[in-house]
Amino acid sequence: MYLHLGQAAVISDREIVGIFDLDNSSWAYKTREFLDRAQTEGRVRTAGEDLPRSFVLLRNGQVVLSQLSTAALKGRAENGRLE
């Protein structure tokens, strides 16, 4: 199954390690440090032009920022929808 993360970003569910709420998880120092390091190393990509609300960590270490909420992504994953 594939999960649509926004705009033209579609990811295989087998590649997803976790989906995280950006507002809540970015309060933690270690999460901010991880995201900063991923950005510096060029492992962050954006799945849309709007303000990101969540991020998806992939098996290969890539981070995809999505304008969709974690609830919306969870709903899409549970329903198997690509839209």
Short description:
This protein has 83 residues and is α+β, with helices and mostly antiparallel strands. The chain has 3 helices and 6 strands.
Question: Could you characterize what this model shows?
Answer:
This protein has one domain. 31% of the residues lie in helices and 33% in strands. It is built from 3 helices and 6 strands; from the N terminus they run βββααβββα. The protein has a 4-stranded mixed sheet with strand order 3-5-6-4. A two-stranded antiparallel ribbon has the order 1-2. A hairpin with a 4-residue loop joins strand 5 and strand 6. The chain is globular and about 35 Å long. The mean pLDDT is 90.
Major sheet: order of its strands?
3-5-6-4
What's the order of the H and E elements? EEEHHEEEH
What is the radius of gyration? Answer: 12 Å
Distance between the termini: 12 Å
Average pLDDT:
90
| Morphology call | globular
Number of domains: 1
Identify low-pLDDT runs: none
Taking the sheet with the most strands, its summary is: 4 strands, mixed
The portion of residues forming beta strands comes to: 25-35%
Number of helices: 3
Strand pairing plus helix content: what structural class?
alpha+beta
Helix content: 25-40%
Q: Using DSSP, what is the number of strands?
A: 6
